[in-house]
Request: fold
Amino acid sequence: MGILAAAVAVAATLACGGVLVSVNLASTLPTMSTPARLGVEATAGPTPSPSPYPYLSPSPIPTQSGTGAASATPSSSRTSAPTKAPTKAPTKAPTKAPTKAPTPRPGTPKPTSAKCIPTGAAVPADTAIVEPQVAASFGVCVPILEYHRIAPASEIGTSLPALVVSPAAFAAQMDALEAAGWHTITLGKLGDDLLAGRTPPARSFVVTIDDGWYDGYDDAFPILEAHGFVATFFVISGRIDHPSFLSSLNLTALTAAGDEIGNHTVNHVQLGSLTGASLSAQIDNASDRIAQVTGVRPKSFAYPMGVYNSTVVAAAVACPGMEIAVTEHKGIKETTGGRFTAPRLKITPGVSPAQLVAMMAG
Ligand SMILES: [Zn+2]
Reply:
């Protein structure tokens, strides 16, 4: 067992915020059945500012009722959230799924699983991380949706339009999924299930929201709550409490409400160029900071821009508490052995509710 030494040279070209970056992944993808997918997501550089990538630049985002500022309290429009949080889980025990138990609905059709039968061969085989007690081929079919910002047009600023879904569109998507009998689990819960060899209830799905913008709390959170849904918010730990990004109190409130705060590195750097201590620091220190803020250590990780290689995967696996990591590969199947390169469905503004429901079936 161990890492296969496939000598596949992959030269990939990244589109990062309009900046093309050539990356040679020649010796770093031996365990991947497909080359690391390089997402279209823009990124901030290692230093918070000034940034050549406007998507994550904190300054252009207009404030609305103080929502864009890193305030000591959650934004005024959502100040009720922390107080209602105790009705949900105040802490996140590993066994506790932030649940919306799949409520069987009369007339709800059975899950269309014919196209969603995971096989070990269908997912990148990361054999080095397969726990011996769990069959490598154990798999589930839980769609993981990938969002970045849920914000009105007036607050887009310089963010890439393709990465911003309006609150109205997001609400319509969640309406459609709820009506179709879907219910959420966090990504950490999915990681728990994969490790336990346990299949989640039918029609489970995961909402992930990358980069930790303030609108994750101001706009997405109330919509999720209205549907009884939870999400995994991937935050950049170095931007917690910075203008335009989620505050510590936001993160605490989300955690108390059953949502998950996932790890998206300290500085949102492209990890493929890092090794050793600098690589592990980007991952481990982010988990440390999130745990310090929320009291819950992240189980979930998202590779910035979807960029990874075997060294990066190994660093994610080695991060204490980490159970699962998502990429920007397109797919809806996850396996225990491949859970550190889990695929997602990127949801762009043009995806209609009906199209989204259809996508969930694979
Ligand atoms: Zn990101």
Summary: The pocket of zinc ion is lined by residues 41, 210-211, 264, 268, 304 (CB under 6 Å). The chain is about 25% helix and 15% strand.
